[in-house]
Amino acid sequence: xxxxxxxxxxxxxxxxxxxxxxxxxxxxxxxxxxxxxxxxxxxxxxxxxxxxxxxxxxxxxxxxxxxxxxxxxxxxxxxxxxxxxxxxxxxxxxxxxxxxxxxxxxxxxxxxxxxxxxxxxxxxxxxxxxxxxxxxxxxxxxxxxxxxxxxxxxxxxxxxxxxxxxxxxxxxxxxxxxxxxxxxxxxxxxxxxxxxxxxxxxxxxxxxxxxxxxxxxxxxxxxxxxxxxxxxxxxxxxxxxxxxxxxxxxxxxxxxxxxxxxxxxxxxxxxxxxxxxxxxxxxxxxxxxxxxxxxx
Length: 296
What we know:
- By secondary structure, the chain is of the alpha/beta class.
- The protein contains 13 helices and 7 strands.
- It has helices at 16-29, 60-67, 71-84, 87-93, 111-114, 118-126, 150-167, 187-194, 199-212, 222-226, 229-245, 258-272, 290-295; strands spanning 3-9, 33-38, 52-53, 100-105, 134-143, 171-176, 251-252.
- Strands 3-2-4-1-5-6-7 form a 7-stranded parallel sheet, with helices on both faces.
- Helix 1 (16-29) crosses helix 12, helix 3 runs parallel beside helix 6 and helix 7 (150-167) packs across helix 11.
- It is globular and about 55 Å long.
């Protein structure tokens, strides 16, 4: 039996849980079944209570206290513990039918799926390599305010591309919180971020040069370091790497807009081929009208 799901990922503060809430609300309004899995052992407040919560297995607070670890080390320990107890996931997800969309909310520490093989190992268990055989699509969120700092934007785009390469599953990249940049960034300029344009950095160099003019800058000053030649070369190398792979483009998301959420869901459904696996509904003309005819 087929199963379908989406992994909601992205850096801290990108709006992953908010997107999960909006997605669940949209699915319920459209009378679709969903199963919400929280895999963030530090998360506490939920608009929709998770159907499965990693904190029922292990919590970050307990790990930090008992193992004397910091937040990042504790989080890695929690996921390693989860990988040793995968029956926790299998038992809950195995009974789900193909009508369900499984929504898996991951924590914001990107090293879990870009630097160490914790989440890639988890994905292999959930997909065709494991017993669950879930058709998964990754939804990677990047906050729209990153476009204000172009070096930060390309660093975030690189992390999205790294996740795509590491996880090896269908991927939808999403620029979240679009309501925060409406009116602040012209639409024509925004298009260059949705399909990352390396020339954005060259425009940024011209802007910084005009701002500084001929002023002397302190080499130890943060702005001087961030605007130095080495930092510029690094950013351009990152941008050209992204351009060479040509893998990353972004969809726009405004969780306050029901059409925007529905549009993202349609991309996810297409990526996992959700609708192709659904059984056709019984047509209305098969309803038994015999009693009504006899009354007439």
